[in-house]
Amino acid sequence: MGNTYVGLDVSQKATSICVVDDAGGIVWEGCCRSHPEDIIASVKKQAAGALRVGLETGPLAVWHWHTLKAAGLPVVCLHARHVHAAIALQVNKTDRNDAYALAQVVRAGWFRAVDVKSLDTHRIRLMLTARKRVVSMRSALYSQIRGVLKTFGIVFPAGKGSRFEHAVHQAIESDESLEPVVGSLLEIWRSLTAQLRFYNRAVDQMAKESDICQRLMTIPGVGVLTALAFMTAIDDPNRFMRSADVGPYLGLTPRRYQSGGVDRAGHISKCGDRMARTQLFEAAHVMMTRSETTSPLQVWAHQLRRRIGVKKAKVALARRLAVVMHRMWTDGTSFDCTLGEPIAA
């Protein structure tokens, strides 16, 4: 048997498998349990020596990709939106047909493989995502408690933390009928506050143990969250041939539409990692408004602000920060505020 190519359509319980040859003919079709060990056994039995094994991005893709890769299979991960164009050509949408379409895509080579991040990176990302969710829940609960008490004419002065907790206690004491509801909401808020402290300590420790983060944090405005978000979004800096490619990867460059005599640029694409993009924008905001350390990068951003406005200048600075941070990572350098660029560590 000649060269073979495998398509895997993975669902929650079962995985459809299709094996095709060089000519695109079906060699074998089947189905197995959606567990990596079962998939590995089926592929090795029916398509030993396959040139490529393709699967789409999805909830189980990271787990499957790492396990299949460790087993020695030439697995590639394909972006679901890119594969959709091939799948949409089929009249009937079935798992079997989807597996066939995936096999044909990897056979033809008309795809760009998705870079799957390491499991260690996903663990750090999990901590950052959980912390973000706790912050969101805590802020929503804070606003809800203030809003509920306004109904009864109790308006709090500005303040958070212990000041907020003390004000709620005073409100409950003045009207005991509020205690069952507001007291329970306050208890949940306390629990979220304690959990947030735990996450803050955890991310601080992660950044402290990472030499990469420590070097990235030498940039004014770049803190623990920005350094970790950027590091986990990039994962492997060698994936980029040029540092300038990091900006488009994170969605920080304008969209462009060009056709005939029409050529216009729009808003930034926002097609990359949202967390990293948000944190870089925050770092740019801090550098421009609150940083006490002056650097040529900050001066450049202020000059740009006078020409194109504050928001666009912050986006441009965020893109420039992404480029500088990638260069620092690859070169093993630290930031020099006098030069506004990396220097040898």
How is this structure best described in words?
It contains 13 helices and 9 strands. The chain is an alpha/beta fold and 345 residues long. The chain has 3 domains: 4-108, ATPase, nucleotide binding domain (Nucleotidyltransferase, domain 5, 2-Layer Sandwich); 119-209; 212-344, no CATH class. α7 packs across α9 (224-234), α11 crosses α13 (310-331) and α12 runs antiparallel to α13 (310-331). The longest helix is centred in the middle third of the chain and has 32 residues, at 119-150.
Largest sheet, spatial ordering of strands: 3-2-1-4-5
Strand tally is 9
Q: What number is the mean pLDDT?
A: 91
**Unreliable segments of 5+ consecutive residues:** none
List the secondary-structure elements in sequence, H or E.
EEEHEHEHHHHHHHHEEHHHEE
Please tag this protein with its features.
345 residues, alpha/beta, Nucleotidyltransferase, domain 5, five-stranded mixed β-sheet, two-stranded antiparallel sheet, 13 helices
List the helices and strands and how they pair.
Blueprint: E1 4-10, E2 14-21, E3 26-33, H1 36-46, E4 52-56, H2 61-70, E5 75-78, H3 80-87, H4 95-108, H5 119-150, H6 162-174, H7 179-209, H8 211-216, H9 224-234, H10 246-249, E6 254-259, E7 262-268, H11 274-289, H12 296-308, H13 310-331, E8 333-336, E9 341-344
